[in-house]
Amino acid sequence: MIGSSVLRVEDGPLLRGDARFVDDVRRPGTLHAAVLRSPLAHARIGAVDVAAARAHPGVALVLTAADLPGGGPAIPMRMFSLAGMERFLQPPLARGTVRYAGEPVALVVADSRYVAEDALELIEVEYEPLAPVLDPWGALADDAPLLVPEAGTNLAGAFTIESGDVEAAFAQAALVVEERVSCQRHAAVPLEARGLVAELDDATGTITVWGASKIPHVNRRILARLLDWPEERVRLVELAVGGGFGARGELYPEDYLVPYAAIRLGVPVAWQEDRAEHLRATNHSREQVHEIAIALAADGAFLGLRDRFANNAGAYVRTHGMVVPGMTAGLLPGPYHWPAYRCDVHQVVTNKTPAGTYRAPGRYEANLARERLIDMAARRLGLDPVELRRRNLIRPEQIPYRTGGHTDGHPVVYEAADFPRLLDRACDELGWDDLVAWRDGGAPARRRRGVGLACFVEKSGIGAFEHAHAEVTPQGRVVVRTGAASVGQGVDTVLAQVASEHLGVPVERIRVEHGDTATVPDGMGAFGSRASMLAGSAVMDAATRLRGRILALAADVLEAAPEDLELLDDRVAVGGAGGRSVTLADLAERARPLVALAAGREPGLREDAWFHCPDMSFPYGVHLVGVEVDLDTGGVEVARYGVAYDIGRALNPLLVHGQIVGGVAQGSAARCSRSWPTTRTGTSSRAPSSTTCCRPPARSPRWRCWSRRTRRRR
C-alpha cells in the first residue's frame, strides 16, 4: 500500500453531502452569538453602554471585559515564547484600549444570529481615537505611539542567529548586494470560516466544543487553563474542515468566549464567523521587512549572508509566539553554503490584525528575500542565475551540513540531500533552456516575458511526538485512532495505507479516527507538515504490534506456528487461502476479557504506540516559471510553471501531486490560463523526487501538460 495512489477516503462524505461541518451541528435549545468589533485600529475605550442591548427581546447575555473573571484571561502562547512577550498577549474582550480594527469588544448571545446582530447595534461605545502605528520599523522609532504603554516598547521579542565571521566576509567581498525586501500581508481565506458550538453537560460537568481543528488536544489544555477547570471536564471535537492553511485552529478570543457563555447560560451556544469578520479578525501572516545583504567573491562564491528584519506581529502576540520569524531566521540560508551568516530578528507589534502562521510560515518570506538578492547578484556579475546558484549549493560530500541556524532552539542540520542533482534535474526535465529561449524569442506587442527560478529548503516533522491506537473491532474491522488532525491534507487515507502495509489488512477494512479528545488520550494535531512523518510512524508501530498479537492468538486457535500464518482480507489462514483459517471477528470475540482471561490469555486485540522524534527533517525543492505581463493592464499570465521536489518516499503519489499543485495554485497571484500542472514522479532510488510541469509539445503552438510516470505518457 505504501507508494500506491489510493483515492482519498475523505472525499466520499464531501461528495455525498454527508460531511458534518460546524454549521451542521444542531443541539436542542441552541442560542447564537455575535461579536461587536472595534471599527478603529487604535482607540481608548470610554463608556460602554449595553443596557439597551440587554433589554432587547430575545437577548440572553451581553458580555464585556468587565463581565469576565479578572477582565478575561490572556490567551497564552503555545510555542516559541521569549521572556517579555507575555506583556503583549490578547484578552478575549478589549480592556481599556482597542488595538486593531476588528478586535472583540463585546459578545451578544440571543435566540438567533439576526437578533444578536440587531442587539450589537444597540451597544454604545465611546472611543477616543489614538494615533495608529502600522509600519514595523516605524513602530520601533523613539516617538512611535506605544500599543502597551506599560511595556515601554513595541518590540515584543528579538534574537540573533550568527555563525562565522560576518564582518570579515563583507570586508573582503568583491561585490556586496544589499536591498530592502518587503513581503506584504496575506490571509488564508479558507472556504469555511471559523465556527464553534459549545454545550455544557450538567450531569457530568463537561463542556463539549464542536468545531475544533488543527490542534484539538493542545487547545483543550489551553481552554481548560483559561476556564480554570481540570482537563477531563473539557472535550473538543473535530469536524469536517473547509480548509485550514495554518490560520484556522489556533485558540482565538471566540474559542474562550463561546464556551464561557455556554457555561454561564447552561445552554448550547453557537457562533459562525462571517467573511468580513474572518478578514478582520483571523490571523494574517507574511508581513516582514528585510534589510538583507550578501557578500560575494569575484567568481560568484558566496562569502556571507546578513539580514535584519522586522516581523509585523499585529496588535497582539498570539499562540504561535515567535514561530514565524523563527522559521524565517532558521531557514533563511536555504540550500547554499554560507561561510558566515547573521540574522537579527525583531517581532514588532502594530495596530494591524494579529499575525500568525499561514501555509509554510516563515519559509515563504525567507525564500523571497534570499532568492531575490541572488538574482540581483547574478545580474551584476553577468552570470546566469542558475549557474550562480549551482556554484554555491551545498555539495553532497558536505552532508550532514549544519547551517548555523536554529528554529526554537532546534539546530538546522541537513542530514540527507543532493541539492545540485535536484537543480540539474529540474532544469533538464522542466525545460529551463526552453523557457529562456521562449523569453528571448520576443513577446507580442505591449507584453513582456520573464522567467524565474528559486531554490528552497522546507521543514517537516515539527511537534516532537504523536500517538496511535490500533484495534480489531467485534465486526473484524480495524480502527486506527491518532492524535493527528485532518485539515484536508488526506491524513485519513495515508494513515490507513500505513496501517494496511504493516498490519496486512486491506485498506478498505481500516477506519481512521481522530480529533475527539474524549477518545484519543493526547496528540499534537496537524501543522508543520508533521502528520505523515510522526503520526505515520506511530501508526506503523501500533499496526506492527497489533499484527503480532493477531498472529499469536490465531496460532493458538489454529494450532500452528505464527510464521506459517497469513493475514488474508478478513481472516488469518494457515499456508495461504486454501488452508484452515479463523476470521478476525472470531479472534476479536476470543479476545474479549471474559473469554481471554478464562483461557489464560491477555484480553483485547489492541495496541498503542507513541512515536517521538525531537529533530525535524528538511525536504527541499526548486520552482521555475515563465510569465507574460500585459503592460497596459498589469495582468500576469503564467505560461509554464514547474516544481521539482525531493520528497523522499511518497506514501501516496496522488496526494503528493495534490499538495504540490495545490500549493502552486494557492501561492499564485495570477491565473494560469494556458496550461495547468500535472505530475511526473521520478523513480530513482538514489534521490526520489516529484516534478510537476507544464510543457509545450514539439508540434503544437499551444502549451499543454504532460504527465509521465515510469516512461508512460498519459
Keywords:
714 residues, seven-stranded mixed β-sheet, five-stranded mixed β-sheet, 17 helices
Task: Give a nutshell description of this structure.
The protein has 17 helices and 33 strands.
Please explain how this structure is put together.
The protein is of the alpha+beta class and 714 residues long. The C terminus is likely disordered. It has a seven-stranded mixed β-sheet with strand order 3-5-1-13-10-11-12, sandwiched between helices. A five-stranded mixed β-sheet has the order 7-17-16-15-8. Strands 20-28-29-31-30 form a five-stranded antiparallel β-sheet, with helices on both faces. α8 packs parallel to α9 and α13 runs parallel beside α14.
How would the blueprint of this fold be written?
Layout: H1 11-16, E1 31-37, E2 43-49, H2 51-55, E3 59-63, E4 97-98, E5 104-110, H3 113-120, E6 124-129, E7 155-163, H4 166-171, E8 175-183, E9 186-187, E10 195-201, E11 206-212, H5 216-227, E12 234-238, H6 253-265, E13 269-272, H7 275-281, E14 284-285, E15 288-296, E16 302-314, H8 323-331, E17 341-349, H9 363-381, H10 385-392, E18 401-407, E19 410-414, H11 419-429, H12 432-440, E20 447-457, E21 465-472, E22 478-482, H13 491-503, E23 510-514, H14 531-558, E24 565-568, E25 571-574, E26 581-583, H15 584-590, H16 593-598, E27 606-612, E28 620-630, E29 636-646, H17 653-667, E30 678-681, E31 690-693, E32 708-709, E33 712-713
Parallel strand pairs: 1-13, 11-12, 16-17, 22-23
Antiparallel strand pairs: 1-5, 2-4, 2-6, 3-5, 7-17, 8-15, 9-14, 10-11, 10-13, 15-16, 18-19, 20-28, 21-22, 21-27, 24-25, 25-26, 28-29, 29-31, 30-31, 32-33
Helix pairs in contact: 8-9, 13-14
